[in-house]
Specification:
- By secondary structure, this protein is an all-alpha fold.
- The chain is built from ten helices and two strands.
- A two-stranded antiparallel ribbon has the order 1-2.
- It is globular.
Length: 203
């Protein structure tokens, strides 16, 4: 039997590594959660790493496994169309974007933890270019993700949702993730045109 080339697995390495990190940190329990979650006062006091680390810790195992499952689904939608480096850049940009927007635009958000804000952004980042190229399935799923974010902004989470994840649902983080992903898609789409324009100007 012919073995598959390593290159075919490369695009999956970053999502798999992120899932492994999230699961390992969840196994660390309450001390890890307390040390890494987003705390507004702590960030303003200089603990800036929390803008990134907050997205890798969760309120409980149910919250954690839901987001890991969502990450797996997102990676499946990507179907190897994104490189490992592209995944790494997107995750860091989205995590920082959501964290900074929580700090700047949501002063009422004292605490936050979970991958969901980044995850909503990753879905948009994966699906939007495919939808733009005419992929009907990507278009339908993208519209469902956007509709879900819109619904959440005007309909508070139910008690059942809060009980499931073990705390409040920070719907603003979902919105920020989607907005940051749209901005990232626009920047990445414009970059090749800008490079060609600069190259032509230098000639």
């Amino acid at each position: 039997m012919q073995s598959l080339p390593l290159r075919s697995f490369t695009p999956w390495l970053v999502p798999v590594a992120l899932a492994g990190l999230v699961l390992a940190l969840q196994a660390g329990g309450e001390p890890v959660y307390e040390a890494l979650r987003y705390e507004r006062a702590a960030v303003l006091g200089g603990q800036y790493w929390r803008l990134l680390s907050a997205h890798a810790v969760h309120l409980g195992w149910a919250h954690c496994l839901m987001n890991v499952g969502g990450l797996a689904l997102c990676a499946a939608f990507a179907a190897g169309t994104r490189s490992g480096s592209a995944w790494a850049v997107a995750i860091v940009v989205l995590a920082l974007g959501v964290g900074i927007l929580l700090l700047a635009a949501s002063p009422q958000a004292m605490n936050y933890a979970g991958l969901s804000g980044v995850l909503y952004g990753l879905f948009v980042w994966v699906l939007a270019p495919r939808a733009w190229r005419g992929d009907r399935v990507a278009w339908i799923v993208l519209m469902a993700v956007i509709a879900r974010v819109g619904w959440q902004m005007f309909h508070p989470p139910s008690d059942a949702q809060r009980a499931l994840i073990g705390g409040e649902v920070m719907v603003e983080a979902h919105l920020y993730g989607a907005l940051c992903a749209l901005a990232l898609c626009l920047c990445q789409g414009a970059w090749p045109h800008l490079r060609r324009a600069w190259a032509g100007a230098e000639v």
